[in-house]
Amino acid sequence: MPEAPKTSSKLPENYNYNLQEKNAKALEFIEDVTANADEVQKRVLAEILSSNANVEYLKRHGLNGHTDRDTFKKVIPVITYEDIQPDIKRIANGDTSQILCSKPISEFLTSSGTSGGERKLMPTIEEEMGRRSLLYSLLMPVMSQFVPGLEKGKGMYFLFIKSEAKTPGGLVARPVLTAYYKSSHFRNRPYDPYTNYTSPNEAILCPDSYQSMYSQLLCGLCQNKEVLRVGAVFASGFIRAIRFLEKHWRVLCNDVRTGNLNPQITDPAVRDAVGKILQPDPKLADFIESECSKESWQGIITRLWPNTKYVDVIVTGTMSQYIPTLDYYSNGLPLVCTMYASSECYFGVNLNPLYEPCEVSYTLIPTMAYFEFLPVNRSNNSINGVTNNSKEHLELVNLADVKLGQEYELVVTTYAGLYRYRVGDVLRVAGFKNKAPQFSFICRKNVVLSIDADKTDEVELQNAVKNAVNHLVPFDANVSEYTSYANTTTIPGHYVLYWEMSLKGSTPIPPSVFEDCCLTIEESLNSVYRQGRVSDKSIGPLEIKIVEAGTFDKLMDYAISRGASINQYKTPRCVKFAPIVELLNSRVEAEYFSPKCPKWVPGHKQWCNHD
Ligand code: AMP
Fold first, then answer.
1. Which structural domain range is residue 521 located in?
2. Ligand 1 mutation pick, 139, 181, 352, 425, max ligand atoms within 8 A of CB
């Protein structure tokens, strides 16, 4: 593997020229594919359909080798995960025939979206990694138009791998980023000043999350002056790193002072890699100590990494709840959302990365997949409630034909064998780059609660509450009303449920019963939530707050005073609006937390015997 030079003085002489040339090429590519969005999309669809002409799925629907849009739209149904689950199951169980794709399925990418409480499995093929890498390669050329000189320093990015499992048929199932970081595209990347990170690959690839985080922070601290940008994938992950620093800065400081790595870091590859960066530096240790021991941590990012120009994290969608915290820690540095992607497919890039988070839009790159758009109307009184327009078989719109201001649900056809698959994201057309639309991310359909990668919908929440309420039966008690709130003021954030009780029995309910209710809710939630609690520790214990009788009437009065219709009023199953949260909090009588972590094991429940 080509070794990345340690300092900029060792850069090849012509690197600057090469860099400019590479940047120009990337921008030219964006110009080209966006100017010809419709033609590119036609070509992409034809490529996908001709290479997969003989797969079982397309034959089953009678496509008969056609590769044109009209026939495709006429015969291939618009689907959700549940529709292809039987096909996915066959592949997972070891059927290697051409079911969805003519190319061998190389692995499954486990989506943070769930079906039946388990992560969705997205098939992928070897060549998809190249397509994903291409999207990554566009990000810095775009960024460098707005922030020059980024090639002169490093990026401090907190990147992690997660556990993986094997399907009964022997395919690996893991999150897309784990697959990417472990791939040669990432590990053996040729030297590029734009992928020059403070974290050694070994630290990123360390499966132990404590050791990984510790060593990445330590390396970031050791190279603090070289850092020009900081980030993580999602805002929640970046905040977790700051929290870790708050807890562990004394030990980290000691390592910087002595040049000896904390013996708790036992992974030999990590020790080796960190050893190449860590030098005794008492002056730096004094500096870190003086900054971290100050009472206020406001602006800690700019204090410890003084040359940082921006924070690169996704803060669109549910992650926007973290903006105030990030602003606080970074003293208002620009928050940059560079891309929009998923396990199914990488979608697009933000061509104006310095726009405020609320102004961010993503330009879908037409070569990534074939995109269609299902018009949606969101009903105003259901939070995140999305209804499709009345007719069942509404015409899906092509990428080049979407209308400014209209909202759509994204539907993709991928090279890896998803055909007209509803991703579940609602997007709004915010503008155009040449002929390609730019979308702001509106919401994930039906999701009510999210702290990190978890996405809990109303039905899951309802079932979880129903299960928990069983604990109250012996006390002749019930939950008459409930709502929920994603509390991200704690680090990590946690789910809060507000319960109004209806009590018929006279025996008081002991706190342990409510704690059992908390745990039962957690046990009933999907595996992504439980993984966040158990393995990633990115979600804190669930809390139930008991509110006074009459609280939910007050909530209704409030909604009606703000214009809600009394006939149509439904208790929101999730609240976000600060005055409503305040109203609920002002009437809390008791609070209970989940006493321990719920159960979670990697992989799907039904595979456990095979692991
Ligand atoms: P996963 O398949 O688990 O990687 O999750 C992909 C989902 O994360 C997408 O479908 C979106 O709902 C969400 N997501 C990804 N990128 C962004 C972004 N830039 N802004 C908002 N949400 C995003």
1. 449-607
2. 425
